[in-house]
Write a structure and sequence with these properties.
The protein has about 250 residues and is of the alpha/beta class. The chain has one domain: Spore Coat Polysaccharide Biosynthesis Protein SpsA, Chain A (Alpha-Beta Complex). The chain has eight helices and 13 strands. The strands form four sheets. It has a seven-stranded mixed beta sheet with strand order 5-4-1-6-11-8-12. Strand 9 and strand 10 form a beta hairpin.
């Protein structure tokens, strides 16, 4: 049976670290004298992997993001937008969190296989979601694309067995004993329902949601991309470092 894929890109953060006068998802990456916003890279990752519907989760200020991407016809894809609203118990200074953002799209993603990527990351190979999916098994409920990270302390450590089974996710680990971090995630409908239940019950941290799912016996698999490249461009320092150290942008 063919799976129905849907892309999911959370873009509801306020970008306080970069302090830009426009959404950080539109930060310019210039190649061959052409402008490409950083978020277009994950969009192209998804489309190259066979995704024909992508949902952006945004906040109420992201008009410029909608203005750039539109309905998706320029990219040969359908784009939808969901607004993540602040909850009454949340400070106005930040968004309610990643888990809440992902669950904001519940009404569009339920019953489908979700391909989730962050809007400020660059990943190689270009069809990373396809490559991960074909290395998974049909009974895997959550599949993580695992990369070697230059800054594992900023990401989420993926603890894996030799057969690829994931046993734990450690968000922003204080002790760095290896450099494996997830760059994007694919999950099937069972995890969408579990995520919705967890967020509805008050669990807000996405790593906690995943660890609870693992503890409940949900099947998590890590697919290690030994030749893959993953860069998080959440700060100016990371953007400068990418330009200095990697030619990875030329592959995108």
């Amino acid at each position: 049976m063919t799976e129905e894929l849907i892309g999911l890109i959370p873009a509801a953060g306020k970008g306080l670290r970069l302090r830009l006068p426009y959404p950080k998802e539109l930060y310019p990456i210039i190649r061959d004298n052409r402008y490409k916003p950083v978020s277009q890279f994950v969009v192209e990752n998804l489309i190259a992997s066979g995704v024909n519907h992508i949902v952006f989760v945004i906040n109420e200020t992201k008009h410029q993001l909608i203005g750039f991407f539109g309905d998706g016809h320029r990219f040969g894809c359908n784009f939808s937008y969901v607004v993540q609203e602040n909850r009454e118990d949340e400070s106005q200074s930040t968004s309610p969190g990643l888990g809440h953002a992902l669950n904001s799209a519940y009404h569009l993603i339920k019953g489908k296989t979700v391909c989730f990527g962050m809007a400020d990351t660059l990943m190689v190979p270009g069809d990373v979601f396809r490559q991960v999916l074909i290395q998974s098994k049909m009974d895997d409920e959550v599949i993580l694309a695992v990369f070697t990270s230059d800054h594992p302390e900023k990401g989420a450590k993926v603890c894996m067995e030799k057969d690829g089974r994931v046993t734990k996710i450690v968000d922003k680990p204080k002790e760095i004993d290896h450099r494996h971090t997830w760059g994007c995630i694919i999950w099937r409908p069972a995890f969408t329902e579990f995520l919705n239940e967890q967020i509805s019950s008050g669990v807000s941290d996405f790593a906690d949601v995943m660890n609870h799912a693992i503890q409940k016996g949900m099947r998590f698999r890590g697919v290690y991309l030994s030749e893959g490249i993953y860069s998080d461009l959440g700060t100016y320092e990371e953007i400068v470092e990418l330009e200095k150290k990697h030619g990875s942008l030329r592959q995108l």
